[in-house]
Specification:
Length: 102
């Protein structure tokens, strides 16, 4: 259950890299993970490739990036992010200075 994983990720103090590729998370899963990312201070790399994440999920991840100061790499390849989702992510980069790879 991605909600439980997100809760654990929010409390995480050890895991710095996480790959959840091809887990069929969709926008709802991305939203749960975004909540955790907003609080997490340890995770530096998150891969969410091939998870059917669309504009709604990308918007929530972007909002988390505005608060997150640890993540340096976020991989969203092979998803369904369209123009609006990309715009949200680009806007988030205006206030996020730690993310190096998107």
């Amino acid at each position: 259950d991605v909600a439980r994983l997100a809760t654990l990720l929010g409390e995480n103090v050890n895991v710095s890299r996480l790959s959840l590729n091809d887990c069929n998370l969709g926008d709802q899963g991305a939203e749960h993970l975004a909540e955790a990312l907003a609080e997490n201070e340890v995770l530096t790399s998150l891969s969410l490739e091939g998870n059917r994440v669309g504009d709604r999920g990308a918007a929530r991840l972007a909002a988390a990036l505005e608060r997150n100061e640890a993540l340096t790499c976020l991989s969203l390849g092979r998803n369904c992010v369209g123009g609006q989702g990309v715009k949200h992510l680009l806007d988030a980069l205006e206030s996020n200075y730690t993310l190096l790879t998107l």
